[in-house]
Amino acid sequence: MDFDVLSREDCLRLLASGWLGRISVSIAALPAILPVGYLLMDDSVVFRSAPSSKLDALGRGEVICFQADDVDRQTRTAWSVSVVGRAEVISDEAQLGALATVEEDLWPSITTAAWLRLGTDMITGRHIGAV
User: What's the rounded Cα separation, in Å, for the pair 37 and 41?
Assistant: First the structure.
């Protein structure tokens, strides 16, 4: 099956079109892959996390991987974008205010969540199938 490596711009465009991804973190020295609702804000992946061992791992500055994708079975095409880096808790009041306007649109709805940001300095993507 043929695939194309995506440009940074294509990766960001595809991430902006999605809403559900997965993060990979280390919890108690074991890998964990967890679903997160996300959005793209200022070229960063932004998502929420409730107080948990996942948030503890993120707060320690561990490197994580975020991945989002989409598959169209009818056309037999797919894309996948991965971002690697250290997530940080968003504490800027202006950014938190802007995020409050989209809070209800994200899934899952977490009322006691912290907002986290993952920069897209290390981003890769692939498109599989016909263009």
Answer: 13
114-119: strand order across its sheet: 3-5, 122-128, 77-86, 63-72, 20-27, 30-41, 44-49, 114-119, 88-89
Q: CATH number of the domain at 28, please.
A: 2.30.110.10
Whether the CB-CB separation of 106 and 46 falls below 8 Å is answered with no
Residue in the block written with tokens 């995506």? 6
For residue 29, give its domain range.
Answer: 3-128
What is the tens place of the pLDDT at every residue in 45-87?
998 887 775 666 666 677 899 999 999 999 999 999 999 999 8
Is 86 in a helix, a strand, or coil?
strand
Q: Looking at residue 24, what is its pLDDT?
A: 93
